[in-house]
Amino acid sequence: MEEQEREISYADPPASDSEVVVVVNPSRVRPPLGVVLATVLYCAELLNAAVLCSSYHRTDDEHWLGFTITFMLLPAVLIQMTLIFIHRDVGRDRPLVLLLHLLLLGPIIRCFDALMVYFQAGRKEEPYVTITRKIYLKRGQGTRTECEVSRSERILATHRNAFKRTTVIQAFLGSTPQLTLQLYATIQEKYILPIRLTLMIITKISIIYGALVCSVLAIQIRYDDYKVRFRPSAYLCMILWRGLEITTRITALVLMSTALTHWVILVGMANLIFFFFLPWAEFWAKKGSLAKDVEKNFSKLGTVVVLCLFTLLYACINVFCWSAVQLDLSHGELIDRKQRWDRLAIYYSARFVENLLLITLWYFFKSDFYDLFRQNVHDCLRRICCCRGTGQDQRHTRKMAPSYSTAATMVLMPDEPQEPLDPQNLNSDTDQQETAILDDITQYA
Hints:
Pfam families: XK-related. This is XK-related protein. Keywords: Membrane, Transmembrane, Transmembrane helix. InterPro entries: XK-rel (IPR018629), XK-related_adapter (IPR051773). It is a multi-pass membrane protein. This protein starts with 20 loop residues before the first strand and ends with a helix. It has a three-stranded mixed beta sheet. Strands 4-5 form a two-stranded antiparallel sheet. By secondary structure, it is mainly α. Helix 1 runs antiparallel to helix 6. It is built from twelve helices and five strands. It folds into two domains: about 20-230, no CATH class; about 245-365, no CATH class. Residues about 1-20 and about 400-410 have low confidence and may be disordered.
């Protein structure tokens, strides 16, 4: 039975209970395009960052080298831990997979595994292993539907969920600080390396894709009981909003760093610490207990470590953009599904004031980069005006008709003894010629 689906929004009324429809023939297995894209972005950023590190090492740029390596390895290590945690490979006998994860090549082997499962799916009939229940909306009426999920679909769903998490980690723990660092390095060194420009382009794509995945995940978590589909216009709106929001934030931080470097580090750390301890403060205020459904095989210390890493990701997201979800460490899902509009308004109001304050401080304490940029633009415009003025004079001279009064005339004169040149007169003539040239340039400018 085919249902015509539509998107849902926050204003949609809750679906009413209706009869259950069992879908005997589920839809065709979708290709894991998100897994492939996440793997390509991970490999491209890792390779470009490694090449840029070698360039910094050759030029003895120790500061740029250290920060670039940090923002390259930190998300890579966390991505390996996330993939191992989601796929539960710790207690399984898979030494090759664990070895590739130690070599930071885990996403590659996971991507090949997902592609192999996709291409082998449908060749032989598979018994379903689970049933999913979702609510399909049609003309405002909700229909509860049960769909049989085969083994291949379940494996691909696990891969998709894992790579959605790794994409967010890569975007906000690696790509965003990496882009901020490389923009700051470009302004300080006043020239653009080709490999650095390539890395900045890749990180920008990774940030936009990660922010898009973060927004989609937030909606899917809040409406877990619904089958949510998005139109292309919805994706475009989310890309534009998230892209402009993160770009504005990075621009404010980079401009501030060119004027007050140490103070911008203080601002970034203050934001990170505040958003990191905010969920824990709410957890202690509620006097709740830690969620026990994080992982059954984990001890209490292991659960705390996982929750700290999860809170770190939440804090890094909120440093650059709105996370769209609220953490609840006492809840089993760790997510508060209620939309807190008051927090949304407070966040964007405070972020607007902070960005405005950072740009104002940069304007009053700006470095010589802005003066150098303005001087270069002024020199460029002056040369353009001079070239235009010289070209107009040449065209005007060519258009003038030749006449006897202005034509050159050869006259034979008797030879006279030449007097030696006076050096002082020669210098004065040269100065007068230079003064006349400068006056002409000023007049045309």
